[in-house]
Amino acid sequence: MDVRVVNAGIAGETADRTLARLDAELERTKPDLVLWQVGTNDALSSSVTEPAFEATVERGVTSIERHKSDVLLLDQQFTKKVNDPDRYERFVAVLDRVAQKEHVCLFPRYRLMKSMDQSGGEGIALMLAADGFHMNDVGYACVADLLALNIQELVAQPDQ
């Protein structure tokens, strides 16, 4: 299969800023599938409220679908380097709610990484950069491999 990947993400961007440029990006690239990794910067920003974030992600999903693209949301990475873990987890839960409400797929990166951390060993440490927050090449490769498997499984399923 011929696959072209376009990385249109901007480091440090919040969902509302992505939304502001999303329509133009979708028109330009005309993707079959949009993987939207969203929420980390929103959860860390004290100026973003949960309801505002939820509404922004819902508008983004609607925009993606209006452009005839499929959407797969990726939730936040797990890290112990957040000042307010409860707030962070509430933003993770927002993506789960949006995915269920909008009937789109969600790749539960946060839950995957958190379970690796809780199982002991060095698994999570191997996935994070030295700052203990950002993912490193090993972490991204792991997520990419698991995402590819999930996408293959979804594509292989007959329409329901």
UniProtKB/TrEMBL annotation:
CDD domains in the record: SGNH_hydrolase
GO molecular function, one term: phosphatidylcholine lysophospholipase activity
Taxonomic superkingdom: Bacteria
Transmembrane residue ranges: none
One Pfam family hit: NonGDSL
PANTHER family: SGNH HYDROLASE-TYPE ESTERASE DOMAIN-CONTAINING PROTEIN, THIOESTERASE 1/PROTEASE 1/LYSOPHOSPHOLIPASE L1
Protein name as annotated: SGNH hydrolase-type esterase domain-containing protein
